[in-house]
Structures are given as C-alpha cells and as structure tokens.
Amino acid sequence: MSEKTIFDLFGDKKTLYLAVREYIHRNMLRDMLPRLPLGGGAPMILRAFGREFLREVSEYRDRARVSIQSITAIDDADIKKSTQEFFLQLRELFKNILTEGQKVGLVKDDVDLDQFAWTYTMALYSVGYVTLMDPPKQMSGEEALLFLNRLVDYIEPESV
C-alpha cells in the first residue's frame, strides 16, 4: 500500500495511529475473553485475565508497543481521550467482575470495588510494561504474575 493511499484513507498519522490502537484494543479483548473461566468467580477470572494479558504482551510485542506510544503523546487531546476511554473500559469490566463476585460471596464485602478496579487496571498495565523489558531469565511466568495475584488475594474472603 502506498503512503498516498494511507493518507487518502486516514488523512494523517494521528488518525491512523488511533485507528490501529483501537483495532488492537478491541481485538485483544475479543481474543482474551473466551479464554477466561467466566463461571469460576471473580478471583479466578482476574487471575486468568492477568495471565492472558501477559501472554498477549509477550506474544504480540508490537501491539503492546503501540499502547506505550500513547504515553509519549499523552499531551495530545485525542490520544489522551482514547487512552482514558480504554482504561475506563477495562475498569468497568473489572468492576463488573468484582460486583458479581461480591454478590456470590467470592469478594469481601468491605472492598471498594471502584478503587480496586482502578488499582488492578493500573497494575495490569505496569506488569505488562515490565514484561516488555524482558525480565531476567530466572523469573518464570508465574513469578511475573505474583504482583497481580497478590492484589487478587486481597479481595478474597478468608473462607475461600
């Protein structure tokens, strides 16, 4: 495809970038959700989401780099809005998972669901970025998930 065709379709580099980023985020979630244990309860789903997210980052490093690019351009209003919308979408997904888990007793009653959903969203991305840095060979995949899993431990009632 020629550069002229790309600019005819998208107009400018920013519009192309936003379209690519939207495509990556939409497809990442679409591909990950069927691999989650949706009947397993909130803690199990969140642990699986962390594992699947890190698998996605490891397997599709270029896709993850596209997301990182948004941080370097966060002063652009359109890129900031797109980034905020995706983080809000993830937070909403996690809050819904937590809400359902709380209803069936798999999440402590005193957990601030909104705050935990934000914390998990930020932690997920932090761990994903660290994964891109190629952690030492001595660190196994499960060790990379330890931080996320410790967060999930916090929400589980003692009897689970």
Task: Describe the overall structure.
- This protein is mainly alpha-helical and 160 residues long.
- The protein has a single domain, classed as Tetracycline Repressor, domain 2, CATH 1.10.357.
- It is built from eight helices and no strands.
- 18% of the residues are buried.
- The longest helix is centred in the middle third of the chain and has 27 residues, at 77-103.
Low-confidence stretches: none
What's the CATH class, please? Mainly Alpha
**How many separate domains?**
1
| Helix coverage percent | over 70%
- Proportion of strand residues: under 5%
CATH superfamily: Tetracycline Repressor, domain 2
Give the overall pLDDT as a whole number.
Answer: 88
Radius of gyration: 17 Å
CATH level-3 fold name: Tetracycline Repressor, domain 2
Dominant shape: elongated
DSSP strand count: 0
N- and C-termini, Cα separation: 55 Å
Describe the biggest sheet? none
Helix vs. strand class: mainly alpha
What is the architecture at the second tier of CATH? Orthogonal Bundle
Number of helices: 8
Q: H/E order of the elements?
A: HHHHHHHH
Please describe the topology of this protein:
Layout (H helix, E strand, L loop, with lengths): L2 H8 L2 H20 L9 H18 L1 H12 L4 H27 L9 H20 L8 H4 L1 H10 L5
Helix pairs in contact: 2-5, 3-4, 3-5, 3-6, 3-8, 5-6, 6-8
